[in-house]
């Protein structure tokens, strides 16, 4: 059974803390900061991939699943991390990229060299389909100097694996077992809902071909098999599937406990409410109505059908939520605590992305040369090719690049923000002298996160309560109720920079305030301040 008291913290290892002076974060850096994370109160750390990799997609192009990239440290560093973590009751979640491997992986190399056994590990066709890669261009590239093509839904150095082949599945399940035996207690499965591909692949020019490989029914079977062959053997293991362009119906199936697939899922619909016409590389203010409706429909459907969501605003693939949903010039702190309340008191498992707990925001890079991410660089070229000026294209990259979240963690007000003593692999955000852990640890945001994490641990209604939409018609407030037995919890989150009045149902007028980011008293007509959150409990 999933332990619903837990809160997970995501570390982007390359950018967390460098201890050996190469400008790249490392395992010793994580060990170094465990006391800080214990103070925050989190239970598990999800690390983005730290396996050997040519780093074409920052580690999501893995060349060896059962080793560590020496840039991050050795196996004995890893063991020390697990050991020291357990002293702080902190466990670790690894990032399993099982949809594809790097073309530097020995499987692909052997396949290229003509080994039939390994050729069956990949998706090779004489006739490519019209599908597009998620990083731009065709999803197919020529397989060596043959007349065949291999599928890569992501970068051309990330070759999709053939899950139809039992040998592939067994090899991947072995990987999960390997890391479980080493003490890993959580797994995040990268783009796991695209692993199931049909034997006969069809052209589909709609939506880049996504329907041909997303959420295929066979994916559920594969997850069940993986569950049985690996993590399902230990009921304490936590799993989360990253789901690309998924549906509520499928996410219920992926997570309902009796299905024995995964503990929970990440979906991204709520982080597309600022896309113009569904397109990422555009600039548009977020659509509150759409956001609220998504939260409500997912919240209610998952609650009614025993599904379980991973709750998050940020990760390594998203610009910082503060820049997208909050007037950070005037309300960075209140906005940060409001966003946190809106997910931490909801139904699901909350994730905190490094730096969120001190209110980190996007960097103000001033040149395209400052960006490292393959997706951003490809998108910039694509925007220019579409006829955008350099300035226009740059403005879009600046707002949307994944590097926005990947800048080094800001520890203190010293050169390179205390992340490293040499120039980091990606520039530190210019705001580090005001936004950093040294200042933030005694600040409003950090303490508020501590309280939210603590509340989840002591209130079963936060862990287990059902979810119901509240104030559905409000154009400023995202509200919901949780219910457990006789208890009810009302959570109101005001998403705008002005005051708004709301009528409090009688039942809550005699309730108690569990938390608010402003000093407040309960009143029949509540006036919510800019970006105010409030949670009221009635027993
Ligand atoms: C996931 C990862 C992302 C990566 C992609 C391909 O979306 O979060 O960083 O680029 O998968 O592996
Ligand atoms: Ca280092």
Give an overview in words.
The protein has 4 domains: 8-98 and 165-366 and 409-450, TIM Barrel (Alpha-Beta Barrel), CATH 3.20.20; 100-160, Oligo-1,6-glucosidase, domain 2; 367-406, no CATH class; 466-538, Golgi alpha-mannosidase II (Immunoglobulin-like). It has 18 helices and 20 strands. The chain has helices at residues 27-32, 34-40, 75-87, 106-112, 116-119, 166-181, 217-229, 248-255, 288-304, 321-325, 328-344, 374-385, 390-400, 403-406, 437-440, 444-458, 460-464, 506-509; strands at residues 8-11, 44-47, 91-96, 100-102, 124-125, 140-142, 149-151, 158-160, 186-189, 238-242, 264-266, 310-311, 349-353, 466-470, 477-484, 487-494, 500-503, 512-516, 525-528, 533-538. It has an 8-stranded parallel sheet. It has a 5-stranded antiparallel sheet with strand order 14-15-16-20-18. A hairpin with a 6-residue loop joins strand 6 and strand 7 (149-151). Helix 12 packs antiparallel against helix 13. The two termini are 26 Å apart. The protein binds alpha-D-glucopyranose and calcium ion.
Q: Which residues form runs of ≥5 with pLDDT under 50? A: none
Shape: globular
- Percentage of residues in helical conformation: 25-40%
CATH architecture of the largest domain: Alpha-Beta Barrel
The distinct bound ligands, ions and cofactors come out as: alpha-D-glucopyranose, calcium ion
CATH superfamily of the largest domain: Glycosidases
| Quaternary structure annotation | single chain
Can you tell me the CATH topology of the largest domain? TIM Barrel
Query: Could you tell me the mean pLDDT?
Result: 98
């Amino acid at each position: 059974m999933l332990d619903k008291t837990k809160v997970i913290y995501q570390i982007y290892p390359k950018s967390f803390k460098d201890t050996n002076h190469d400008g790249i974060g490392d395992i010793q850096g994580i060990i170094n900061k465990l006391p800080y994370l214990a103070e925050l109160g989190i239970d598990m750390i999800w690390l983005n991939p730290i396996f050997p990799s040519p780093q074409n997609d920052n580690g999501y192009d893995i060349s060896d699943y059962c080793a560590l990239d020496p840039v991050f440290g050795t196996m004995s560093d890893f063991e020390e991390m697990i050991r020291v973590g357990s002293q702080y009751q902190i466990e670790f979640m690894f990032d399993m990229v099982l949809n594809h491997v790097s073309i530097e992986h020995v499987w692909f190399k052997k396949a290229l060299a003509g080994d039939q056994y390994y050729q069956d590990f990949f998706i090779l066709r004489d006739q490519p389909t019209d599908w597009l890669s998620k990083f731009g261009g065709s999803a197919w590239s020529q397989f060596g100097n043959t007349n065949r093509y291999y599928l890569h839904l992501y970068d051309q150095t990330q070759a999709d694996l053939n899950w139809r082949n039992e040998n592939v599945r067994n090899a991947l399940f072995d990987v999960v077992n390997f890391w479980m035996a080493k003490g890993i207690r959580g797994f995040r499965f990268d783009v796991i809902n695209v692993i199931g591909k049909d034997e006969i692949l069809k052209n589909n020019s709609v939506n880049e071909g996504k329907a041909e490989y997303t959420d295929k029914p066979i994916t559920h079977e594969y997850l069940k098999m993986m569950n049985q062959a690996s993590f399902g053997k230990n009921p304490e293991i936590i799993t989360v599937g990253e789901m690309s362009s998924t549906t509520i119906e499928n996410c219920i199936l992926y997570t309902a406990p009796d299905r024995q697939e995964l503990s929970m899922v990440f979906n991204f619909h709520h982080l597309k409410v600022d896309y113009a016409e569904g397109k990422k590389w555009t600039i548009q203010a977020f659509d509150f109505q759409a956001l609220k409706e998504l939260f409500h429909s997912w919240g209610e459907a998952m609650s009614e059908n025993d599904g379980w969501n991973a709750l998050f605003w940020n990760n390594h693939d998203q610009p910082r939520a503060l820049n997208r949903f909050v007037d950070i010039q005037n309300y960075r702190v209140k906005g940060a605590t409001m966003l946190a309340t809106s997910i931490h008191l909801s139904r699901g498992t909350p994730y905190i992305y490094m730096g969120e707990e001190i209110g980190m925001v996007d960097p103000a890079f001033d040149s395209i040369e400052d960006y490292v991410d393959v997706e951003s660089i490809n998108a910039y070229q694509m925007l220019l090719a579409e006829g955008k000026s350099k300035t226009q294209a740059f403005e879009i990259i600046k707002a949307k690049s994944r590097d926005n979240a990947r800048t080094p963690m800001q520890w203190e007000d010293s050169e390179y923000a205390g992340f490293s003593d040499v120039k980091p692999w990606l520039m530190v955000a210019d705001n580090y002298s005001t936004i950093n852990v040294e200042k933030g640890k005694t600040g409003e945001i950090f303490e508020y996160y501590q309280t939210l994490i603590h509340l989840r641990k002591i209130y079963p209604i936060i862990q287990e309560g059902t979810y119901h939409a509240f104030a559905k018609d409000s154009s400023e407030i995202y509200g919901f109720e949780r219910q457990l037995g006789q208890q009810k919890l009302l959570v109101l989150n005001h998403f705008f920079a002005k005051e708004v009045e709301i009528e409090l149902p009688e039942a809550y007028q005699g309730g108690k305030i569990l938390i608010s980011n402003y000093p407040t008293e309960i009143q029949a007509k509540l006036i919510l301040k800019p970006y105010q959150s409030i949670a009221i409990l009635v027993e």
